[in-house]
Design goal:
Strand order of the largest sheet: 1-2-3-5-7-10
Bound molecules: coenzyme A
Number of domains: 2
CATH architecture of the largest domain: Alpha-Beta Complex
CATH superfamily of the largest domain: 2-enoyl-CoA Hydratase, Chain A, domain 1
CATH class of the largest domain: Alpha Beta
Helix content: 40-55%
Order of helices and strands: EEHEEHHEEHEEHHEHEHHHH
Number of helices: 11
Number of strands: 10
Length: about 260
């Protein structure tokens, strides 16, 4: 059974972390399969939105597979495994929007995966945390950098130093997730949101994502220049003309990504 499932329907790629017996903990096989699934969906012209979720009813993902932790890895081996840690880059390189649909446990590397997504929605039973410091380690795939950028230094340090998971409603209060829904509605709400995004102009979404993400890295002057350049490119798209024409004709627009 594959550790990551990829199912494409109605322009949405549903990517499922699939080790429910281990609360979808990330083992070596999953580390290899997940970026491959992201890149496959990213390259498929039929796909407009990616959704990340966990199999089973208990977890999005309980983080790195602790049972695979080597007692004392040699520095050379560990350095190589850090290189392999570049798997999370598949998320950063994706132009298409990625939704994290989170129920239950979302800890450690699981939260880091969610942080690498663009929109996080959570079920009321979600618990999100970074327990690494209690294991004597640090986040390994960007959590210590993405979390403070998203929720500010105060909450990031609180979560990283205490390791205490936050319930979904608190996570929403601090901006860690943007939407919280009853458990029974998570899948339907995720599907509706994914369909909404899939119906919007793909290039405009890709550029919105590029501009907003760049804002985390760039000085304002450079960010404003990037925004202007991306907008200039969008002015030349068929989808922009289609949006205006559909508005005038009082009909729903049909976007092609051109
Ligand atoms: N790595 C490997 N296996 C894990 C795992 C992880 N990160 N998290 C859970 N599992 C496994 C458990 O070992 C157990 O399998 P087993 O019965 O074969 O041993 C199964 O998933 C269910 O977990 P269990 O601990 O029995 O559930 P629980 O409800 O009592 O506790 C957690 C849930 C999430 C609190 C607990 O599993 C936990 O603390 N996990 C580790 C989370 C963590 O520290 N992640 C960051 C790693 S850097």
């Amino acid at each position: 059974m594959s550790t990551v499932l990829l199912e494409i329907r109605d322009h949405v790629a549903w990517i499922t972390l699939n080790r429910p017996e281990a609360l979808n903990a990330i083992n070596a096989a999953m580390r290899a399969a997940l970026p491959e699934a992201i890149r496959t969906a990213e390259a498929d012209p039929d796909v407009r939105v990616l959704v990340l979720r966990g199999a089973g009813e208990r977890a999005f993902c309980a983080g790195a597979d602790i049972k695979e932790f080597a007692p004392v890895p040699s520095p050379a081996e560990y350095r190589q495994s850090r290189r392999n840690g570049a798997w999370i880059r598949a998320f950063d390189e994706a132009r298409k929007p990625i939704l994290a649909s989170i129920r239950g446990i979302c800890l450690g590397g699981g939260l880091e995966i969610a942080l690498a997504c663009d929109i996080r929605l959570a079920a009321e039973d979600a618990r999100l945390g970074l327990p690494e410091s209690g294991l004597g380690i640090l986040t390994g795939v960007g959590g210590s950098q993405r979390l403070p950028r998203l929720v500010g230094l105060g909450w990031a340090l609180d979560m990283m130093l205490t390791g205490e998971p936050l319930p979904a409603t608190r996570a929403r209060e601090i901006g860690l997730v943007t939407r919280v829904v009853p458990v029974a509605e998570l899948e339907a709400v995720t599907a509706t949101l994914a369909a909404q995004l899939a119906a919007r102009p793909p290039t405009a979404l890709a550029f919105a994502k590029e501009a907003a993400r760049a804002a985390m890295d760039l000085p304002l002057r450079e960010g404003l220049r990037l925004e202007g350049d991306l907008l200039t490119l969008l002015m030349n798209t068929e989808d922009r003309l289609e949006a205006a024409q559909a508005f005038r004709e009082k009909r729903p627009p049909h976007f092609t990504g051109r």
